[in-house]
Automatic annotation (TrEMBL):
<comment type="pathway">
    <text>Amino-acid degradation; L-arginine degradation via AST pathway; L-glutamate and succinate from L-arginine: step 4/5.</text>
</comment>
<keyword id="KW-0056">Arginine metabolism</keyword>
<feature type="active site">
    <location>
        <position position="280"/>
    </location>
</feature>
<dbReference type="GO" id="GO:0043824">
    <property type="term" value="F:succinylglutamate-semialdehyde dehydrogenase activity"/>
</dbReference>
<feature type="active site">
    <location>
        <position position="246"/>
    </location>
</feature>
<dbReference type="Pfam" id="PF00171">
    <property type="entry name" value="Aldedh"/>
</dbReference>
<dbReference type="InterPro" id="IPR029510">
    <property type="entry name" value="Ald_DH_CS_GLU"/>
</dbReference>
<keyword id="KW-0520">NAD</keyword>
<comment type="function">
    <text>Catalyzes the NAD-dependent reduction of succinylglutamate semialdehyde into succinylglutamate.</text>
</comment>
<dbReference type="InterPro" id="IPR017649">
    <property type="entry name" value="SuccinylGlu_semiald_DH_AstD"/>
</dbReference>
<dbReference type="GO" id="GO:0019544">
    <property type="term" value="P:L-arginine catabolic process to L-glutamate"/>
</dbReference>
<protein>
    <recommendedName>
        <fullName>N-succinylglutamate 5-semialdehyde dehydrogenase</fullName>
        <ecNumber>1.2.1.71</ecNumber>
    </recommendedName>
</protein>
<feature type="binding site">
    <location>
        <begin position="223"/>
        <end position="228"/>
    </location>
    <ligand>
        <name>NAD(+)</name>
    </ligand>
</feature>
<dbReference type="InterPro" id="IPR016160">
    <property type="entry name" value="Ald_DH_CS_CYS"/>
</dbReference>
<dbReference type="InterPro" id="IPR015590">
    <property type="entry name" value="Aldehyde_DH_dom"/>
</dbReference>
<dbReference type="GO" id="GO:0019545">
    <property type="term" value="P:L-arginine catabolic process to succinate"/>
</dbReference>
<dbReference type="InterPro" id="IPR016161">
    <property type="entry name" value="Ald_DH/histidinol_DH"/>
</dbReference>
Length: 489
């Protein structure tokens, strides 16, 4: 049991709310337990951030950056411990959690570039004056993180928010509290001043108390579309608060006219099954041309998928897929498969959840070509739906037939086909002959439709971390040579 789990105004304390815990989903063992922050503690965290804001926002950019850079160095120094904790809490293999810590390390330098490029100062001469564009931080912002990237994704909001001069209250996923605790301890070691970054741990009740707090100026959320929609409703009628939503997807990947079948299958596997299908960018719907070549791709995909190694995060050699986040999530995937089969889908590779006490599942493929009314849901796990098609227009129309719009891709030899696809597909990430997962921090990251609210993250996170201020400035005043009609001096 961890006794100091809340970090409020520079002090660690126990929570006063309900006890909750995290479980290692690969081994079904407890990892962490602690008590949630109650409403009073959430209030104390927000008020600490409010109190710290004037001083933090008035510091020079260099001073704020120095702390962020120290944090980045500490992440690199503590890479193994953090990667190990991520693996224990999420079930992701350590080869993968090491890349997550690597992305966190890189975030500070990228966010500094983004801050200067997207929200820096611009000066223009005008007659008798100068015009300036500058940016100011919003104030106190709440950051909500998902479980699938418990370090990298909240970090993608926290780092740019702090660089811009905001103060932060961080509410991590209740499934990954130990990763959050370790990360915030590194911020403390880096010298973050009291109140500038606060951590409130807990389940949904803690999240609700934070999002409803009248003293937050903004909320940056990465998580499910359901929760994001609830928050959007809650923020309705509050144009004074900034809300950035990064949500899920039902992402399409189209295959047509490819000469290298193994390279094609590799891109499909990386798109559909990395992180056991628990990336918001994962391919959920695979569109394959109903030709001899298309069938050859599908046959090879079935063969390769059956041989994907699934296993413990520390197994040697390392598996491609670790456990899903929980036994419950894995059971949910098996249920989703049963539902697709009940609707008329044909199983090409059966997703198997053999041990109901763990989150370990094998990847599955269901051919849903002949099924009508497939639910437009994000199945957040290693379950791929296949649609066979006869014309590219038909495939694109069906690919766009979703309320989401996060990522999309096409695998094809011909550039003209890609250009046509790019023109007609609706998504915030559109790739050609590359996996649709693994987005770069140096590019904007966000979706349309039910996937986001037009506030892209990653490189563009700088945009929602401050507001622009336009100024016209002159160091002295004089009467203009010609006065407006009707004025007498
Ligand atoms: N577009 C993107 O950038 C990404 C989106 N995701 C999406 O995240 C989801 C998986 O993450 P989860 O942790 O399951 O998301 P979630 O929506 O269940 O939880 C996210 C956070 O919101 C809090 N929360 C839940 N209900 C709340 C409420 N009513 N009021 C206030 N706070 C509440 C949770 O405690 C947690 O801290 C997937 O749907 C995935 O697609 C994940 C990564 C990236
Ligand atoms: O925010 C960034 O720096 C880049 C976004 C990113 O890393 N995306 C990853 C994971 C997002 C997810 O699916 O949870 C990706 O595109 O695979």
């Amino acid at each position: 049991m961890s006794s100091s789990v809340q970090f409020i105004d520079g002090c660690w304390s126990a929570g006063n709310g309900k006890t909750f815990k995290s479980i290692d989903p690969a081994r079904n063992q407890p990892v962490w337990s602690g008590a949630a922050a109650d409403d009073n503690q959430v209030d104390a965290a927000v008020m600490a951030a409010r109190k710290a804001f004037p001083e933090w926002s008035q510091r020079s950019l260099e001073e704020r950056l120095a702390i962020c850079k120290r944090f980045s160095e500490l992440l690199a120094e503590n890479k193994e411990e953090l990667a190990q904790t991520m693996a224990e809490e999420t079930g992701k293999p350590v080869w993968e959690t090491r890349t997550e810590v690597g992305a966190m390390v890189g975030k500070v330098a990228i966010s500094e570039r983004a801050y200067n490029e997207r929200t820096g100062t611009v000066e223009n001469d005008m007659p008798g004056a100068k015009a300036f564009i500058r940016h100011k931080p919003h104030g106190v912002v709440a950051v909500y993180g998902p479980y699938n990237f418990p370090g990298h994704l909240p970090n993608g909001h926290i780092v740019p928010a702090l660089i811009a001069g905001n103060t932060v209250v961080f509410k991590p996923s209740e499934l990954t509290p130990k990763v959050a605790e370790l990360t915030v301890k590194l911020w403390e070691k880096a010298g973050i001043p009291a109140g500038v970054l606060n951590l409130v741990q807990g389940e949904v009740e803690t999240g609700k108390a934070l999002s409803a707090h009248p003293q937050i100026d903004g909320l940056y959320f990465t998580g499910s579309s359901n929760t994001g929609h609830l928050l959007h409703k809650q923020f309705g009628g509050r144009p004074d608060k900034i809300l950035a939503l990064e949500m899920g997807g039902n992402n399409p990947l189209v295959v047509t006219n490819v000469s290298d079948i193994d390279a094609t299958v590799h891109n499909i596997v990386q798109s559909a099954y990395i992180t056991s299908g628990q990336r918001c960018t994962c391919a959920r719907r695979l569109f394959i041309e109903d030709t001899e070549q298309g069938r050859a791709v599908l046959d090879r995909l079935v063969e390769v998928t059956k041989n994907i190694e699934v296993g413990d995060y520390e197994a040697e050699p390392q598996p491609f897929m670790g456990a899903m986040i929980s036994a419950q999530a894995a059971a949910g995937m098996a249920d989703a498969q049963s539902e697709l089969l009940r609707l008329g889908g044909k199983s090409l590779v059966k997703l198997v959840h053999e041990d109901p006490k763990t989150g370990l599942v094998t990847p599955g493929i269901v051919d849903v070509t002949d099924v009508e009314d497939i639910p437009d849901e994000e199945y957040f796990g290693p379950l791929l739906k296949v649609y066979r098609f006869t014309s590219l227009d038909e495939a694109i129309a069906e690919a766009n037939n979703t309320r989401y719009g996060l990522s999309a891709g096409i695998l094809c030899d011909d550039e003209e086909t890609y250009r046509y696809f790019f023109k007609h597909i609706r998504a915030g990430i559109v790739n050609w002959n590359k996996p649709i997962t693994g987005a770069s921090s140096a590019a904007p990251f966000g979706g349309i439709g039910a996937s986001g609210n037009h506030r892209a993250s990653a490189y563009y996170a700088a945009d929602y971390c401050s507001y622009p201020v336009a100024s016209v400035e002159a160091d002295s005043m004089s009467l203009p040579e010609s006065l407006a009609p009707g004025l007498k001096f």
